[in-house]
Amino acid sequence: MKIGLYFGSFNPIHEGHIFVAQKALETGIDKLFLVVSPQSPFKPLSELASFNDRLSMAKITIKSHNLDDKVEAVDWEEYMYPSYTAHTLQKDVPVLRENEVTIFMGLDNFLTLDKWKEPDYILENYYIHIIPRGEINEVKNLIRDKISFLKENVTVNIKGITYSQIEHTIDISATEIRNRIRNNEKIGNIIDNKVLEYIKNNKLYK
Predict the structure, then answer these.
(1) Any idea what DSSP says for residue 43?
(2) Residues 117-160: pLDDT tens digits?
(3) CA distance 115 to 109
(4) Which residues pair with 6 in a beta bridge?
(5) Which of 83, 132, 175, 204 could be bridged to 199 by S-S, CB 3.0 to 4.6 A?
């Protein structure tokens, strides 16, 4: 079976994340796991909702979009502070050992991949697929330049790096969503209504 991993804080999960999930499924994987991160090493904890709240919101959104047969939010990184992708991949999770695994990420994450914890391990053992935002020709050049840099600077054979060619993307910032909630501004359709209700009921991002 071919599975995909999509790591993120999902703070909160929004339509941009669902767009990436749907594009990931279009690559031919059988199942996508949304790996909720307790803390990114590159982000502060100050505005982070609790792990359980973010996991719950991810599950609500997946179900609301009728994706629960193909997409699952998982707690593999719970209690990992900070969380490192390489360490998660080395955990004793049977689905990671028994299947072909592709890690899906945005362009920003890919461009900093060499600064991650144990990037050689990730590149040698897992496929990487980039789902970018922005003008495609510019994106292509950035990806190609980064692939060339990685090939010249890592000491392992890279398993495989591919990317989606996307003309239209959903450009949404979780920071913007949190700010709108804090200021009691309209959110619109960039976040699932049931998630917005969850946020209000649990007084998140205030």
Answers:
(1) S
(2) 999 999 999 999 999 876 677 888 999 999 999 999 998 999 99
(3) 10
(4) 34, 104
(5) 204
